[in-house]
Amino acid sequence: MFQKNHSYAVWYRNNKCLSEFNFQHNKVGFQRLKRIVDEAKSPTVYFEATGIYSRPVARFCQDNQFKYAQLNPLELHLHSENLRRIKTDKVDAHKMAHAVVEKNTDALIPGLKIIENYTN
């Protein structure tokens, strides 16, 4: 049985990737993610809704009171037709990060994307 116990995260500010990394869904992995999210200003954590596989990430966001959003993978696919021709978490994370910024939608990422929200 396949169990996805890791995510690939990318952090963008002003359309520039500041950080990217793979992390395990365990105490050490989520501590690493928390350090990155804590550095962002008014972040929203986006991730693909993958049922039981995305629950640890949602729980992490809830426990730490981080703003987050999930999206149906099918709806996300409609925003980027070629998103999954070559399926890798790293490639998908970057493509979805750009889709969120360019289309100003709540498109989400397999793994995670941290976007800083600016009111200016």
Write the layout of secondary structure elements.
Blueprint: E1 6-13, E2 16-24, H1 27-39, E3 43-48, H2 55-63, E4 67-71, H3 73-79, H4 89-103, E5 112-116
Strand content: 25-35%
Helix content: 25-40%
Q: What order do the helices and strands follow?
A: EEHEHEHHE
Give the biggest beta sheet.
5 strands, mixed
**Which assembly state applies to the chains in this document?**
single chain
Helix tally?
A: 4
* Radius of gyration, whole Å: 13 Å
Strand order of the largest sheet: 2-1-5-3-4
Give a brief description.
With 120 residues, the protein is α/β, with parallel strands linked by helices. It has 4 helices and 5 strands; from the N terminus they run E-E-H-E-H-E-H-H-E.
Could you explain the architecture of this structure?
By secondary structure, this protein is of the alpha/beta class. Helices cover 37% and strands 28% of the residues. The chain has helices at residues 27-39, 55-63, 73-79, 89-103, and strands at residues 6-13, 16-24, 43-48, 67-71, 112-116. It has a five-stranded mixed beta sheet, sandwiched between helices. The longest helix has 15 residues, at 89-103. It starts with 5 loop residues before the first strand and ends with a strand.
